[in-house]
Design goal:
Low-confidence stretches: 1-10, 113-123
Strand content: 35-45%
Mean pLDDT: 80
Largest sheet: 6 strands, mixed
Structural class: alpha+beta
Order of helices and strands: HEHEHEHEEEHHEEEEH
Shape: elongated
Distance between the termini: 36 Å
Length: 205
Amino acid sequence: MTILILLSCSSNTSIASSWRDPDITVAKEQFKKVLVVALVKDEASRRITENRIAASNPIFKTSYQYMNGTNLHLTKEQQLQILHDENFDGVITMRLVSTQKETNYVPGTYTGMYYGGFDGLYSGMYGYGFGNWYGMYSPNFYDPGYYQETTSYMVETNIFSLKDNKLIWTGTTKSEYVTDLGQTVDAIMQAVVKEMKKDGSLPPK
């Protein structure tokens, strides 16, 4: 399930819910070095996701460079100390929360009758074969509707301040019609940035 979301891309991504600490904003924190963490078990998906986010801003650094097999056995306090020693002041995490299957009805399409004008019919069609005449006087065509099942992916994005050691912003995005990992990550980050500008966590520009 996790790999499916992270190996796909969404053409439709929107914010389902969000929260921000009223006393702290990302703008005021002025982060200079932020760790990006994709909380997935598949290592390839983790790296693709983190690389995609890190490529969007030079202050973002991938977690696999710092939190890997050499230090995963350490305690949380020891891992946190590594981040402080590396001068990180913020962390962004992304994880799949749930998937939802929905069945929607797609209505059929209807092509109505078309009648050519009297003058057009006899002057425009004079000397032409039946195919041209028939196009001027087309019967009704109906393309029947159908049911379509889509899967929506709910992804949670969190932003932490290491200086204050607390969560300062969280949001859940809903992505539909997903087919590619990189574009899905891009769409999620765009939705997050837009929402953070809206709630005042980021400056409008």
